[in-house]
Amino acid sequence: MTRHGRFITLEGIEGAGKSTQVGGMAEYLRLRGMDVITTREPGGTPLAERLRAILLDPANSEMSQTAELLLLFAARADHLERLIRPALAAGCWVICDRFTDATYAYQSGGRGIDQAQIAQLEALVHGDLRPDLTFILDIPPDLGLARARRRRQGETDRFEAETLEFFTTARQVYLQLAQAQPGRYRIIDATVSLEQVQAQIRQSLAELINELEGRA
Ligand code: Z5A
After folding, report:
1. What are the binding positions for ATP in this chain (predicted)?
2. Is the torsion defined by CA of 50, 56, 62, 68 positive or negative?
3. How far apart are the first and last CA of the chain?
4. How far is CA 138 from the centre of its chain?
5. DSSP assignment letter at 186
6. pLDDT in tens, 11-21
């Protein structure tokens, strides 16, 4: 059977459990015979990781919303060009911890930037490339923030310092995106145990693979 690369993203607010699930997803896909790489945003390439450090640095608390938006898309442009597109072209499955949906959730929902402006940058930076499947790990912000607080070591980053209202609005935007385009998104109940979250994700991955194998 010919294997085609697929682009899978994980989204959700702070502490939803995205980073925790990435490794298990990769392991499952490898067991099913796929070549897999895992990556994250902002970040994923040396340049994008440098931009991530700037974006998260609490010393940059005065950064303007526009500067933040453009830095995110600058990092994404490099990430797409140097890592994501070449991996997909080589037949790899790419699992990315956050992608452009996070920009809609945080920079539009959280910061109030017009979604049309984000859509323009999205069109410029990734053309018609979109994730094949996006998991939204859904959790009430107070529970997500409590988890993140328990895990945190050291200083709070620029986003972690945001208010409960900021994360509540970001969550609402994620749910609206999923409602508008149910084919691409799977909403995962992230309030349950790690194993139960993993089982929900594996079920959807298995369905995607079965669908692809049915088509091959
Ligand atoms: N950002 C943006 O504004 N716009 C954009 O376009 C993009 C990003 C791409 C990246 O920081 C920040 O950039 C992000 C948005 C912004 N900030 N925020 N918020 P990041 O990558 O460091 O932040 P994050 O994605 O929110 O990471 P996180 O706090 O680590 O969340 P997580 O990855 O979803 O959670 P986790 O690390 O997997 O789990 C958190 C803790 O909960 C940990 O101790 C786990 O062991 C525990 N956990 C996980 N799952 C469970 C379950 N099921 N039960 C119990 N405990 C659990």
Report:
1. 12-19
2. positive
3. 7
4. 13
5. E
6. 999 999 999 99
For 55, the token pair is: 């974006």
**In whole angstroms, how large is the CA radius of gyration of the chain?**
17
Domain spans in the chain, listed from the N-terminal domain onward: 7-215
**Which pTM does this prediction carry?**
0.96
pLDDT at position 160: 86
| Residue 109 φ/ψ, nearest 5 degrees | -60, -55
Question: Quick one: residue 58, left, alpha or beta (phi over 0 = left, psi -120 to 50 = alpha)?
Answer: alpha
Q: Which CATH architecture has domain 7-215?
A: 3-Layer(aba) Sandwich (3.40)
Neighbours of 213 (CB within 10 A): 10
Q: Is 6 in the pocket of ligand 1 (CB under 6 A)?
A: no
Q: Is the dihedral of CA 38, 44, 46, 50 positive or negative?
A: negative
At 150, which amino acid appears?
A: R
State the average pLDDT for the chain: 94
The residues of the chain scoring below 50 in pLDDT are 1-3
- How many angstroms is it from 183 CA to the middle of ligand 1? 24
Pocket lining: 15 vs ligand 1, CB cutoff 6 Å: yes
The torsion region of residue 157 among left (phi > 0), alpha (psi -120 to 50) and beta comes to: beta
Q: How would you classify residue 17: left for phi > 0, otherwise alpha for psi between -120 and 50, otherwise beta?
A: left
Q: Which helix (H) or strand (E) holds 189?
A: strand 185-189
